[in-house]
Amino acid sequence: MVNYLGVNSVRELVRQVGLDRFLRQLVDAMDSDYRRWEQFDKSARHAIHSPVGVIELMPTSDGRLYCFKYVNGHPKNTAEGLLTVTAFGVLADVDTGYPLLVSELTLTTALRTAAMSVLAARHLARPDSRRMALIGNGAQSEFQALAFYHLQGIRALRLFDTDPGACLKLERNLARLALPDLHIERCTSVQEAVRGCDIVTTATADKRNATILRPEMIEPGMHLNAVGGDCPGKTELHADILRRPDARVVVEFEPQSRIEGEIQQMPADFAVTEFHRILAGQAPGRRTAQEVTVFDSVGFALEDFSALRTLHALLQQYPHLGTPIDLVPQMNDPKDLFGLLHAPAPQARTALQPEPQAA
Length: 359
Hints:
This protein is of the alpha/beta class. It has eleven helices and 17 strands.
């Protein structure tokens, strides 16, 4: 039998572990996996685009474990009462090819995206950063806010969304948690929200080349956490921000980011730094207090690998949350797969049949 984790099981797992501890475990797993970058098979995700969205497969392996994620992105969905992003994934044993875990990854992707933002900010934002602007207050916003509050010391949040209802939703959800010392301010424009902030997170959903942040909004020393630009033809930053002489752009996996990140706007020789090089000591993190740093976050399969192996490890501690599913046949003779079709079906016990008694 293969273990399955559904949405309710992941939700309960996060509750039992605690959100801040769960996020810390994700950050630690990604930090560990990025430090062994060379062990991973790496490729840009396979994407099939339509006029209204994208469906992607994201595979990777470290030679011992293999994973893939199925994920979509359909910004129009919210108008129909559907999520913009849904996902599920598989973690498998390379030696046998057998799956170890099938899991929802919609909630988990939101958690791992926020955890990756924090991991990058540890090395790129100023250590004294306490004020963050959140531009785009949809499904990802609470996860970003809570990850930066619990793990990075953010204590002031400025919110802006073109939909005022999204801001109210985010503010309501955060207020319900009664987080000590967290000050929240709703703003009437992007410019008002980012003014004086240490970190600016953009997490908008519109699938187009947008200029959510313009050059005149950017102040020396800011860290820009650009989350929303995650497919071809979709950006959030004006290209002149990337061209600033005091700016430095960090990406996850350069071949993928060239296709779908903020740097898709730039020529092929535009210089960027892959994040793993910073962890390996091959490139510096933040160099000066005045430097403008940009984390061009598009999401990479290694992060889903880290998330799936974290779920698998936690399932060993909370086995009651997993559901065994008969995804792979269990056979006495593995050479006789056809015989499985003619084997007697397992007899279902009816409500009238007594429970078997222990011998």
